[in-house]
Amino acid sequence: MKTNRARSSTARLVGRGGSVSLSLDLDPTAPLTLQRQLYEALRSAILEGRLAPGDCLPGTRSLATTLEISRTTVALVFDQLRAEGYLTGRARSGTFVARVLPEAHLRAPGRESRSDKRVASEAGSRPRRVARAGGAPEAHDATGNQGNPSRLLSRRGTMLASLSVSSSPLHGTTGSRAFRMGTPALDHFPLPLWGRLLSRCWRGMAAPQLAYAEPHGYAPLRAAIAAYLRQARAVTCEPEQVIVVSGAQQAFDLAARVLLDPGDRVAVEDPGYRGSRAAVLAAGAMPVPVAVDGDGLDVAALRALSPAPRMVCVTPSHQFPLGVTLSAARRLALLEWARTSGAWIVEDDFDSEYRFRGRPLPSLQGMDPEGRVIYV
Question: Torsion angle of alpha carbons 241, 242, 248, 249, nearest 10°?
Answer without folding.
Answer: -60
